[in-house]
Specification:
- It contains ten helices and five strands, in the order ααααβββββαααααα.
- With 268 residues, it is mainly α.
- α2 runs antiparallel to α3, α3 crosses α7 and α8 packs across α9.
- It is globular, with a radius of gyration of 23 Å.
- The chain starts with 8 loop residues before the first helix and ends in an 11-residue tail after the last helix.
- 19% of the residues are buried.
Amino acid sequence: MQQLDRVKATSVIHYHANIHKALKYAVKIDLIDSNPADKVERPKKEKFVANYYKFEDINKLLEVSKGTHLEIPVLLAAFYGLRRSEVIGLKWDAIDFENNTIVIKHTVTKAVIGGKRETIISDTTKTKSSRRSLPLVDFVKERLLLLQQEQERNRYLCGRCYNNEYDGYLCVNEIGDIISPDYVSKAFKQLLRKNNLKEIRFHDLRHSCARMLLANGVPMKQIQEWLGHSDYSTTANYYAHLDFSSKLLSADAMLSGLGIEKTKSSTY
């Protein structure tokens, strides 16, 4: 419990799970008689409360990010609710301009390996459900086609100086280097401060996407599929408290059942 002075309860629970697993193996191979981690009382998991942007906030963010390295990451995270790893991992071969689809199937993350923070490129997603196909809408399609042209021009201008290691990725800079996850988080924070926007995490664009979908009456099951959650309960636990439209329907149903007429001034 002393760890709670420096880290959150969720981190302590994670530490305990790893230690418990190691000690469980020690019991299995007869190094110890019992698992002492069984007797440790874990803290209660803190309820996560995300920050959200409204439509007007998203519109302003899209405007101020134009022309920066964050333009494409912000666009994809806000509109499609992609995770940071999914945004940076998106490749051109996952985009079908003829059939207007985007397939989420690659990720780029950061991890500490051997004491060094390394970029991990993977052709797999977080979970099986995270691999999903989404519609390529016109305004996103137009911007991505322009991005293709920009990358071809940069490759031509830089010549041998261009880094071809990350050919095929959308989120690269002018000389072909992939945009790192750490850069996205840091630059996003700076972008918000510079433009006097409410400070949220980059990942909160994903939550904002879910909020806007709910506000427009999209069913929770469809939101689960849009975001690529592994099960319905994950989506419901995160966003059920935002589903005000369903509460209005419930209120109307109660009024109807009780034979009470709804007045125009009802705001419940």
